[in-house]
Amino acid sequence: MPRRNTSRIDLLLIHCEAGISPLPFSSFLPPLGLVDLASFLNAHDVRCRVIDCRDPQFSLTWLADYLVETRPRWIGVDVLTDTVFTAARLVNLVRNVSPSSRVVLGGAHATILPEKILKGLRPDAVVIGEGEIACLDLLTRKRLLDVRGIAFKRGRGIVRTPAPPLLDLDEKPAPDLSVIEGFRDIPYIPGISTGRGCPYRCAFCAAGILNPTVRWRSVDRIMEDIRTIFASREFRSRYLIIADDTFTVSPERTLEFCNGIRNLGGGKDLFWYAEGRIDRLAKDKALIPAMKAAGLCMLQLGIESGDERVLKAYRKGICVEDSVHVMEACAREGVLVHGGFITGGPFESPSTIESTRALALRLSETGQGIAQFQFGFLNPLPGTDVFDRPGEFGLKLLDPNLLSSITFDNCVTRTSDFSREDIFDARNMLRDETNAKLEEVFRAHYERRLAHLAELRQRIGPAHNSLSLLSGQSIEERKAEQINGIFEKIESSIQFISQAGDGWRDSIPVRLPFFSLDKDSRYITAERIKLEVVESEIFHYASGKLTGAEIAMILDRSEEELTQAFASLEQKKAIIYRLY
Question: In whole angstroms, how far apart are CA 509 and each of 411, 501, 545?
Fold first, then answer.
């Protein structure tokens, strides 16, 4: 991270992640929430900077030196359920290296569980909800009691201050990526957020609980944001991520956005990605053609299940035929689709899996070579109904703290009809059969799609299975390439190592992706190697959250057994290690 602003700063914001990010990715989204917050504060004469720990040159030593040089008054860390342990390690570093700095934590997990965060990570304050007004108060008011929208410890109790008024989103300045230290070292895809809030209450998602009021930034201001972003010399490709969860909630506003972005070259030399809600897109047939004409090239859809009872339990407000109709519209327009399915969810059984299988294969055919699907596991998050009341959904939570899972990669539930092993088998079957069908359909539509996909691949890279298949690479070959790429990237990263040796206790083991589970609960690696019992126990908790010593405390195995197992996992290329 060669670029560094070493002048005294008021607030340093740190974005942390766990798992193997950023090793599998050739490009990714900036931490938009922190960028927006820092841009707002700087516009109000608060000196604010952002550090993205995904930078390949980031290290705890670099951060310690930075803290000594800049002496921040406050240090803020965003906390998600998957990053609690990483955030805790960063807070400990801050306390040791920069004891005069005060610590504030925010983000979805901190907002849902502020008391637990205050007791466990011991920050000076927790921001509850949006951060702009709360952080401005932190930096400009003398007493925590006068700061709106926070929680803090006082004596043996916890104080929650009144929430501030919701920010008028048009009062925010355009996102300024120069607030990120050294961001030229990270291959960001530019992105923007055009609104906040979610009016829905899906049973597995906390978005509608965290921020139920939908507000929009005006389209005129959004177009100014886009002009500002692409005026920067940092971005050569004119490809934009729309990062809203509910971009298509208002069809009228979506169409207004499309009209605006077309005036900036959308559909000609500017292309973009967005998430869409199937219920809205199925009802308003004009949306997908209008978005495609304005430059939409990829659309993410939450399909979740092919079983009507499961969809009803999720409260998605969609039916199976809605997903089919939306896929048909995307295929007609040539919009790439990334569809998400959830396995291990409410009332999962052989019949629900068969319904999902039938839908996935049908959508593969309907997609005509422009579809890809992800089959993740249900990971109930704090604050959601499936977490708070799993019995109502026919679920048993096997790992409510999600110590064994990162970004939905591991099964942590069972149902009355399906064991954890059954759910793993079902997920693998869905993934493998669907991928085989997708390759077959792609070949059948190759000539028709060739020119369109070739143009997209040139603009956005192989960011979609169809674009990888275009070059003759199978999905299995792409997986193998990703695994090999992880080990290649380790060579240029100073926050990961491939072997820890005797240092396994102080390092944080992270398993490699594309693993499976056998009937006897032993894991099988991406290289199709079945792990031994102790190896499998370690692999289970190697999610990038716990240190080797913390895993050892859970397993209660001898030092010799653990040392041998870690060494064997390294030789089998089943795990690597984070250093923070």
Answer: 19, 12, 8
In a domain, 479, yes or no: no
Task: For residues 492 and 356, give the distance between their C-alpha atoms in angstroms, rounded to a whole number.
Answer: 41
The long-range contacts involving 157-166, CB below 8 angstroms and separated by at least 24 positions, are 158/114, 158/115, 158/118, 160/114, 160/128, 163/128, 163/129, 164/133, 164/134, 164/137, 165/133, 166/130, 166/213, 166/215
Q: Is the dihedral of CA 126, 129, 131, 135 positive or negative?
A: negative
Model confidence pLDDT, tens digit, residues 68-86:
999 999 999 999 999 999 9
Q: What's the CA gap between 27 and 263, in Å, rounded?
A: 27
Q: What is the pLDDT of residues 427-473, one digit of tens each?
A: 999 999 999 999 999 999 999 999 999 999 998 988 899 999 998 88
Measured CA to CA in angstroms, residue 507 lies from 85, 233, 404, 542, 579 at distances of: 13, 38, 16, 11, 5
* CA gap 142, 476 in Å, rounded: 58
Count other Cβ atoms within 10 Å, centred on residue 235. Answer: 15
Determine the Cα–Cα distance for residues 411 and 376; give it in Å rounded to an integer: 9
DSSP state of 372: E
Q: Can you list the positions of beta strands (E) in 442-550? A: 496-497, 508-511, 516-517, 523-524
Single pTM value for the model: 0.95
φ/ψ of residue 19, rounded to 5: 70, -150
- CATH code of residue 288: 3.80.30.20
| HSE-CB for 205 with a 13 A CA cutoff | 19
| Burial status of residue 273 (CB atoms within 10 A of its CB: 0-12, 13-18, 19 or more) | buried
Please indicate, yes or no, whether residues 240 and 342 belong to a single structural domain of this protein: yes
Identity (one letter) of the amino acid at 91?
V
SS3 127: strand
Strand stretches in 128-270, DSSP E = 150-154, 157-160, 191-192, 195-196, 215-216, 239-242
Contact predicate 309/352, CB 8 Å: yes
| In a shared domain, residues 137 and 251 | no
The pLDDT of residue 492? 85
Cβ atoms 93, 66 nearer than 8 A? no
Pick from 340, 350, 356, 331: nearest CA to 433: 356
CB 538 within 8 A of CB 562: yes
Phi then psi for residue 493, to 5 deg, are: -110, 140
Domain co-membership, 423 together with 559: no
